[in-house]
Amino acid sequence: MAQTIEAQPDRPPASEPARATESADQPAPPVEDPARHWMGMLAGYIRPHRSTFITAAVLLLASSVLGLLQPLAVRTLIDGLTTGTEVGRALVTLTALVAVAAVLLGIGNYLTLRTAEAVVLDGRRGLIRHLLRLSVPSLHSQEPGDLLARVTTDTMLLRQIASQALIDLMTGGLMLLGAVVLMAVVDVVLLGVTVVVIVLLVIIMTVIMPRIRIAALRAQESVGQMGAVLERVFGAFTTVKASGTESAELARVDVAARTAFRQGVSLARWGSVAGTAAGLAIQVAFLVVLGFGGARVAGGSMTVSALVAFLLYVAYLTHPVIQLMGATTYLQAGRAALSRIAEVNALPAEPLDLPLPSQSPPAKLAPGAEPGSGSTPASVTFDRVTFTYPGRAEPALRDFTLTVPASGLTALVGPSGSGKTTVLKLLERFYDPQQGRVLFDGRGLPTWPLNDLRASIGYVEQDAAVLAGTLRENVAYAAPDADEADIRAVLRTTRLDPLLQRLGGDLDAEIQHRGVSLSGGERQRVAIARALLRRPRLLLLDEATSQLDAANEAALRDVIREISGDTTVIMVAHRLSTVINAARIVVMVDGTAQSAGTHAELLEKDPLYAELAAEQALA
Length: 619
Ligand SMILES: Nc1ncnc2c1ncn2[C@@H]1O[C@H](COP(=O)(O)OP(=O)(O)OP(=O)(O)O)[C@@H](O)[C@H]1O
Hints:
By secondary structure, the chain is an alpha/beta fold. It has 19 helices and twelve strands.
């Protein structure tokens, strides 16, 4: 069938903004220490919740100010008691100060924690959204278990930053300042003594804080490593069991767990040093003030009430100083988590139109492919395509050219590693070629919105996944709007009625993990049913019938032939019996299309094909 092929540039237009980050051959943009931008990142997380955050900060600050006024009220009370004047008013003021400060503290704390939870939610949503949009090469460059840890434990550290660190930093800082000002009002000389002690404390802290950050980062990394090892184990659980390698895997997880432990201990050590230094500094300040102040009271240059008030301020300092210590410790740990989150956010993602969960519409079918309507088959062209997988030296496809007309069955055959699956992956745009063009319906793939392109294609992979859930969920996975009749029809087409009977005719019965386990052949047929229900314009089958018995394979061969009447089907096959009747068979060798034709033609003209056919007794 003749197709009009639009002229396409060899490389996608530079005006496509997302292309720079998605191309398979484009390395990820250099991640120059993401922690450098941690403050901006943090501000980005807090910004949407700034009103609640500021309200919480104001309430906590007000509570602390009321706390600051308490020593002054105590001084008035003591003065009243010593001079024998009326103290009722001072008592009421003190009680009111204590009660209101407590209420403001409670509300402020609640609002802070609420904001922190919202920040964690935003952080997780953003990260998960980015992860689901990751390009295939980006994902392959990562350990899935580690990514999981970043979504779960690293985002949890955001809570600490937002709930405690920032507010404590603000209120603690202001309180420290307030206390210092009020101390100056009470006695400047004693203030000088206190400030010297505090400056010493700050110097100690600048030495400790970087150590805390490094320990936190390493601890988080080892948690990620633990996740990565476990993910590997669960992904190949039966292989681990059959190989008896449980103890080797245990040792691997243990190494990561012990590293996490060591770093956690280091974190605790430096945290304790910081806390002890802070407590000690306050105690030293208290004793020195007591000594100096006592002498000044004895010398008559200071009243007892002023000394008591000053000492109360020194004691009061404990709170903001510990707050500041805690805040800087959390901030260091949080900074480590933020840098790990930033690393994920810097991974190249696809330009997928992925709304937020609250706005998510059901998966969209290709225009003209709604259930019940006929879908128009699409043509496919590979025009001198060369593609090398990231990190590989040899191209998987070299100068590969293929024209597939709309409708009909095209088979790709050839030795293992000749690039057959790669052809299908490029059509799905899991990767983009470095040279040449791939056209779908005459249009270059980069000009298609990715969602629309993929909605037009049904792809049955070599090891098609069956997801935990019901049979209905699995079959209607890519076409959630399909009705019961469509689902039952496609199950009949793919010869899955015996499975449905085993499930008591219940489409909502669980399969796999919590329900009936499927055989390899049944899994393949569920995957085919899923692809067919989508009414694709292009159906890609990668060894999709390799695990079927002869009867089921023959039946599905008929189904595929029938489907290829009004759908374009590209099928990768090792068993030539599956594709013997294909309209065209393409023999692939070493990433190129060596020859193409019908079975009979290829027997004549392609010795490799003839050999393959002879081996399979099909000559
Ligand atoms: N994700 C990947 N990263 C790096 N190299 C890959 C990747 N996938 C495939 N390759 C390599 O690309 C080449 C072509 O692989 P491809 O899977 O397309 O071959 P195939 O003809 O489908 O093989 P088979 O018949 O065994 O499935 C092989 O050398 C393979 O090792």
